[in-house]
Amino acid sequence: MNRLSFLKLCTLSLCAAGASALYAQPYPTKPVRLVVPFSPGGTTDIVARVISAPLSKELGQSVVVENKAGAGGVLGAAEIARANPDGYALGVATVSTTATNPAINPKIPYDPLKDFTPIVNIAATPNVLAVHPSFPAKNYQAFIAELKKNPTRYSYGTAGTGSIGHLQMELFKSLAHLSIMHVPYKGSGPALNDAVAGQVGVVFDNLPSALPFIKDGRLIPIVVSAPERVAQLPNVPTFKEVGLEPANRMAFYGVYGPKGLPQAVVERINLAVRKSLQDPGVRSRIEATGSMVVANTPEQFRQQIVQEYDIYKRTVAVQKLTLD
Ligand code: GLU
C-alpha cells in the first residue's frame, strides 16, 4: 500500500469511527418533554408527575411535564403525533386520546394506530361516577330513580368531549335509558373543581383524581367501572354488578412518542419506566390512588391500544352514540 492510500484509509476509518461515536451517543443527551393532554389535577397529570421524577433519575436527564389541554385530549395528542421522532417529545397515552375520542369523533387529526409509537403502559385505572353531596340520591338505585323522575334537571362534567368519561356516560345513558346533559371541561381537574363547588351535580372521572374528594365527603361515589369492587370504595357497585357490563371498562395511562421512534430509544424508555415502577415507593404512590401498575412491553401496549380502539368503535356503532 502506498503512503497516499494508507493515509486515505486512515482518514476514512477515522471518519467512520467519529461518525459511529456520534451515532452511538447515548440517548438522552438533553431534557425530555412529557406532554399531558389534560389540565393539572386530572389523572393523566397525576400519573405523569409520579413517574417523571424516577424516570428522570433512570434516564439521567430531566423529564419535563407539560400540560397541553383541550378538545378531550386531542390537542396534546396531535402535538405528539406531529413531533420529531427523536425521543425528546413524548406524551402520556390515554384511553381518551387513543381509543374513545378517535372512536366517536370523526374529526380527529391523527390516526391512533399509525401516528404514534407505543412505549409502555404505566397503569390501569378504575372510573367513578360521583355526585355532589347536595344531589338528592346517594346510591345507584336512587340515582337512577332521580334521573328518571327529573330527566332535564341535571348535567354531568367530564374531562372533555370524547373523553372516556363522556363516552362511558353516554353509553350508560343509552343502556339505562337516562337523560342528562354533558358539560365538557379541559380535564378532570377543572371538572372536579366545578363538581365539588356544586356547579355541576354529577361528574364522571377516573378514580385517582376523584378519590381525595370522595374520601373527605365532598363527592359521593355512585358506581365504578372496575373488574371488581374498588378496595377504597367497598360499598360502591361496579357497572358489571348493576347489569351494565359494556360500561365497565377502565382507563389507562402510558407513554408514547410519534411514529418512527428508533427501536433503541423505545427500549431505553420502556426499560427506564419499568425500572421506575419497580421502586416500591413509586408503585405505592400509584396504587394508593386506586390504580393498578401495568408496566408492559411496547408490543403489548400496542396491542392493547388496538383492542380498546376496536371495542369503543363497536360500542359507538352498536349504541349509535354521537358527540351531540
Ligand atoms: N379522563 C381522561 C382519560 O382517561 C383523563 C382526564 C384528565 O387527566 O384530566 O384519559
Automatic annotation (TrEMBL):
SUPFAM superfamilies the record matches: Periplasmic binding protein-like II (SSF53850)
Region forming the signal peptide: 1-24
InterPro entries xref list: BUG, Bug_dom1
Pfam families xrefs: TctC (PF03401)
Gene3D superfamilies the UniProt entry points to: Bordetella uptake gene, domain 1, Periplasmic binding protein-like II
Family recorded in the similarity comment: Belongs to the UPF0065 (bug) family.
Name of this protein: Tripartite tricarboxylate transporter substrate binding protein BugE
Native organism: Cupriavidus basilensis
Taxon lineage: Bacteria, Pseudomonadati, Pseudomonadota, Betaproteobacteria, Burkholderiales
